[in-house]
Write a structure and sequence with these properties.
The structure holds 2 protein chains of 2 kinds. In chain A, strand 5 and strand 6 form a beta hairpin. Chain A has 25 helices and 20 strands. By secondary structure, chain A is an alpha/beta fold. In chain B, about 25% of the residues lie in helices and about 20% in strands. Chain B is built from 7 helices and 11 strands. The radius of gyration of chain B is 22 Å and the shape is globular. Classes of the chains: A alpha/beta, B alpha+beta. At the A-B interface, helix 18, helix 19 and helix 20 of A face strand 4 and helix 2 of B.
Chain lengths: ~625, ~250
């Protein structure tokens, strides 16, 4: 069906909404990455077969089964939601499906043992609107992720897709669209936080017959997967944003650059693009307005640096994905040296909602300088890992304690790493920090792409810095000296600290190198590469000093600096540590006190982690005479 | 044409020039390792960092940019020796010295900035390649594009495709000639020249008989309608001088 006019779109929307309203029960199986890994595909098959066997798929029963994108609570997957009742079933196995169909779909009751159990209270919560993880969220960019079938245009339209594009194309001039986005206060969700409206205005003003819009789907930060969820779960929101952007700046071609590691995103985007073309939402004469715009997918080759805008554009051009100096902005000379707007997936996904509901609605959320909501991938040592979206300015404490459900295993919170490899850590003392662009930057971290890695007291901050520097060292393109050689030397210095080869003056050497890299590097990958080191140094300097001065790792993580011992008075011989030890270094019969053979121990800390009564402790490994000499003379 | 001020010297340059060109016009020396007039600016070595100030900025606000890529505009003020410019160059040279501890060009530049030995860990089995990219950029510019940068990060290296004998190389030596550290080596004897693992047959100078051009390059030039010079450089010079002095006749 071709939507050749506004009337045809409205008819289509009305039909879709009526169809949706006529459904008594929708069984929504999450097929996001987390749930898929836990067997959601089999669950979805069981749902489809079960519905067919019971004769519920003939279209007259008001029942349907759907596969959707990520529901967010990845920790408890595979997830099955029952709409419109709003029931959420967790950890569903194929064998549970019959129960759900019989008792919930047909019987209208809740299957008690499959619903979410609140770890804090122990109580069971049937509706996801009551689960703390969902209750505290406001979803805009992910408004339809997990609620629609990404392969069904009608379903998306029933949930409001393209309403913003219709308003923009029929009721507004391109200038008014740019103005609307500017007034909404939307800022780039890829990390840097540049004002989207300002970017669009610059591109609109730039001279050139050919202009481009690009969607950056090269999400590569360790622990981040919100763009993936949007592309896989609600591709039409991305397309809608890009149509509006193309209309606003006068572009006729768009690209979505997707990293090679996201094949599912490519599939769902491709299907969405084809559906949109068929419906007349892309291509020649969009919605009968005469506007011409089409989108192509460009697949990355798996280089982290291609998430950098100038490298990304080179990659689309078919060249080697290396950044270049951006003294002339991409909005003037971007892809093929033409004016280009490049926005992140999440930014594009916001645009449709802003146009549909108005700038004021969006600007009313968040903080004065950071408006609206932000999606985060909440991972690490929290109980509820998953995907969340919150108003800007939400305190970290609420994110970690209420939504995340607190630290797993009853351990102590130590820090949260935000902003990916270019970001930094926020320590416990700043837990009440409202999360927005300014606050995170002020405290040495950054918004970045919205990764949030929560760490407990079993985390060594020098080791964390080393992890990110190692990642960046592998991902630096190597074009410029400070980034390429600087990361290698930074890694050498951090390796030295973690392996007991730290020398007096190392911290100063690290700081000087970090400053030189930040000043001298060509692109933001190199300029921000020292951040993980600088921010851990800023908040946990004493840990660095302990590594250098005492050759000790206070968290007991750096193996070369740590040894473990069993407190004989406390040990009750439960034998758990013996089972956990990978090198058979612990001797002792059950119910008797155990001893660690230091010769065999590799200081992995597994025994410490499993001991239920804290009978194992770590201490600094005594330094040998040679190491002491090095430490003394430097 | 825009007028800019570099270290207090006012200079007027052509529209579209970069700061580095303006600085050279003004007689201000800015060190570079990856820059060459024959190829597009690259911005890789970062040695040419300078502080700039533009009209409309706060008086004490400066921005660190690389001179080889920053376009001039009227009223631009450039400082080439501020403390952070010098410090950035020091870190860069210190890092390059760790990469190429034996390379005379790097040693001399580093010494100029007060660095005798690197602060950092020296590369094991170092060679003289500083990854300035001049070799493969000139190869692209000449035309064959026979070599490129392989891998990324510290594993980056200049090589022919798949590290094999480069099929498109014509043995013109542009890469070896432009290499600032002499890293790119080649061998020549009376009949052959070998570079990048590929051996070329040589053509002889019609006057002195010395091998001066590979047959591959002569063929490559002929296919593009370019005149193939039958004389070697020194014979060509001598012939020119003879003609100028009225000793010979032009060919």
């Amino acid at each position: 069906m071709r939507l050749a006019s506004r009337e045809r779109y409205e008819e289509f929307r009305l039909k879709a909404t009526e169809r949706l309203a006529g459904l008594r029960c929708r069984v929504m199986v999450c097929t996001g990455p987390g749930c898929l890994a836990n067997g959601a595909r089999e669950v979805a098959q069981a749902v489809e077969e079960g519905l067919r066997e019971r004769g519920l798929l003939d279209g007259r029963q008001g029942v349907e089964g759907k596969c959707t994108g990520c529901h967010g609570l990845c920790e408890a997957g595979p997830l099955v939601a029952i709409e419109p009742a709003g029931i959420l079933y967790v950890r569903v196995k194929p064998r549970n499906v019959a129960d759900i169909l019989e008792r919930t779909v047909l019987g209208g009751e809740v299957v008690e043992r499959l619903i979410y159990k609140n770890p804090a209270t122990g109580g069971r919560v049937p509706h996801y609107r009551d689960i703390p993880f969902y209750k505290n969220q406001t979803r805009i960019s992910m408004r339809n992720v997990g609620r629609v079938d990404p392969y069904d245009l009608q379903d998306a339209v029933a949930h409001g897709a393209y309403a913003g594009a219709v308003r923009a194309l029929f009721e507004m001039t391109p200038e008014q669209v740019v103005d609307e986005v500017s007034r909404s206060g939307l800022r780039g969700r890829g990390g840097a936080g540049f004002h989207t409206g300002r970017k669009w205005a610059a591109c609109r003003k730039a001279r050139g017959d050919v202009k481009y819009v690009i969607c950056n789907g090269d999400e590569g930060d360790p622990g981040a997967f919100k763009d993936r969820a949007i592309m896989e779960g609600d591709p039409h929101s991305v397309l809608e944003g890009m149509i509006i952007g193309a209309y606003a700046v006068g572009a006729r071609e768009g690209y979505i650059y997707v990293r090679d590691e996201y094949p599912l995103a490519v599939l769902s985007l491709q299907a969405a693009i084809e559906a949109a073309r068929e419906a007349g939402l892309l291509g020649q004469d969009i919605l009968g307005t005469g506007m011409m715009f089409d989108i192509r997918i460009s697949r990355g080759g798996g280089a982290f640096v291609c998430g950098e805008s100038s490298a990304l554009m080179r990659s689309i051009e078919g060249k080697v994905g290396e950044p270049r100096a951006k003294y002339i902005h991409g909005t003037e000379r971007g892809l093929h040296d033409c004016p280009t707007v490049l926005n992140n997936v999440e930014t594009w996904a916001h645009v449709g909602a802003i146009l549909a509901h108005g700038a004021e609605w969006f600007a009313a959320m968040g903080t004065p300088k950071s408006r609206g909501t932000k999606a985060f991938s909440l991972v690490g040592k929290v109980r509820n890992t998953g995907l969340i979206e919150l108003p800007m300015g939400t305190p970290l404490r609420r994110i970690i304690e209420d939504i995340g459900g607190g630290i797993r295993g009853g351990r102590r919170f130590k820090a949260v790493q935000t902003g990916g490899p270019s970001g930094g850590v926020i320590p416990e003392a700043l837990l009440d920090l409202p999360v927005d662009y300014e606050q995170l930057t002020e405290h040495g971290s950054m918004m970045g792409s919205g990764g949030m890695i929560v760490m407990d007291d079993r985390t060594c901050m020098v080791d964390v810095a080393r992890y990110f520097i190692r990642f960046l060292n592998e991902e630096s393109c190597g074009k410029c000296v400070p980034c390429r050689e600087g990361l290698l030397q930074m890694l050498h210095l951090l390796d030295g600290l973690c392996e007991g080869r730290g020398r007096p003056g190392d911290i100063e050497r690290i700081e000087r190198l970090a400053r030189g890299m930040a000043w001298g590097s060509l692109c933001d990958l190199g300029r921000s590469a020292p951040n993980p080191v600088l921010s851990t140094l800023r908040h946990f300097r004493e840990e660095y000093e302990a590594h250098v001065r005492d050759g000790a790792c206070p968290a007991g993580v750096c193996r070369a600096l740590t040894e473990y011992e069993i407190v004989t008075e406390t040990c009750d011989g439960c034998h758990l540590c013996v089972k956990a030890c990978p090198t058979d270094a612990i001797a002792g019969k059950p119910k008797q006190r155990h001893v660690i053979d230091q010769g065999k121990c590799i200081a992995c800390g597994e025994c410490y982690n499993v001991c239920p009564i804290d009978a194992i402790r770590h201490r600094a490994k005594p330094r040998g005479p040679a190491e002491r000499a090095v430490g003394a003379t430097g | 044409m825009p007028t800019v001020t570099i270290d207090g010297r006012r200079v007027t340059v052509r529209e579209g020039a970069y700061v580095l060109e303006a600085a050279r016009l003004a007689g201000v020396r800015i060190p570079t390792l990856c820059h060459h007039e024959a190829v597009e600016p690259f911005g890789g070595c970062r040695l040419c960092v300078v502080d700039i100030w533009k009209r409309g900025w706060d008086a004490d606000w400066f921005k660190l940019v690389v001179a080889c890529l920053y376009p001039v505009e009227d009223g631009l003020v450039v400082h080439t020796t501020t403390p952070r410019v010098v410090e950035t160059r020091r870190v860069v040279l210190d890092l390059l010295l760790a990469r190429c501890p034996q390379t005379p060009l790097i040693r001399d530049l580093a010494r100029e900035y007060g660095i005798e030995e690197t602060t950092y860990r020296k590369r094991e089995n170092p060679d003289d390649c500083i990854l300035c990219g001049l070799c493969y950029r000139i190869c692209d510019k000449v035309g064959p594009a026979a070599i490129s940068a392989e891998n990324r990060g510290v594993l980056r290296e200049v090589a022919p495709p798949f590290f094999e004998e480069p099929p498109d190389c014509i043995g013109c030596l542009a890469c070896a000639e432009i290499c600032p550290t002499g890293h790119i080596k080649y061998q020549e004897d009376t009949f052959t020249r070998t570079i990048w693992g590929k051996t070329f047959e040589m053509l002889k100078c019609h006057s002195c008989g010395r091998a001066h051009l590979t047959r591959a390059q002569a063929d490559w030039m002929a296919r593009r309608g370019m005149p193939v010079e039958p004389l070697c450089d020194s014979c060509k010079q001598r012939r020119t001088a003879e003609v100028a002095a009225g000793l010979g006749r032009p060919r």
